[in-house]
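Following the same procedure, backbone shapes were mapped to integers, as reproduced here:
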Amino acid sequence: MQQLIDLYKNSGDLHHAYFFVGHKVDEVVSKLKHFLENIVGIKTSGNPDFSHQQFKTLMIEDARTIASAQERKSFIQGSTLYSNNLDTPCPSKKIFIIQADFITEEAQNALLKVFEEPTAGTHFFIISPQDILLPTLRSRMQVIPISLGVGDEVTHSPSVSGILDMKLSERLAKVKEITDAIKDNDPLLPEATAWQRKTKQDAITLLNQIERELYEKGTEKNSKGLKICEHARTSLYDRGAPVKMILEHVMLTI
């Protein structure tokens, strides 16, 4: 959070979009609201220009609703919008805090148009426990990884812990565990979309875990493995991406 504070103090204004990647999402939201209230001067309660939404999966319909909402004029003019703890008015701003475990490719493409031509005075804060954004969308945001403080613990999924220490057969078994979820579903059926989306989300979670382990073991000696994970994540967002083939390639080459 200190990175956000420093960026704001140096520029004197908010960037149009931020992406927070890390753990303990609720704690991040609490600190972000405190930042908006006490440093920027924006009320986070009783303010029609402040929106906080939570999604398990943010769909294209949700993205279109958000895009429409950000285009409207601010309900409250800057001269009347005060924080509880500041004596000076804050310029009129619309704030969108979006918590999402996963954002579909279609929804991200819809948001991409918003971030390419942002409405003046509109600011987005996307928060997720994992790196879920397409590179094209990510590149238009200020990315703020959540740094852990003393005593904080990173919670890893038990199903994907210690990947680098596993035998190859065990790594491939993890891939099978993820991809078997859609093996028996006809991709032409509507319900298959949900299965495929879940599989991509699980695959990205697995990649995030591998990247964390590679970072912990040293970025210089594991630069090749990190690049492989980066390419795999990009490939996973392609429509009809062969999830099993992509993950198996990662497991064979890291």
Q: What stands out?
A: Confidence is low (pLDDT under 50) at residues 78-89, 148-160, 184-192. The chain is about 45% helix and 15% strand. The chain has two domains: 2-145, 158-253.
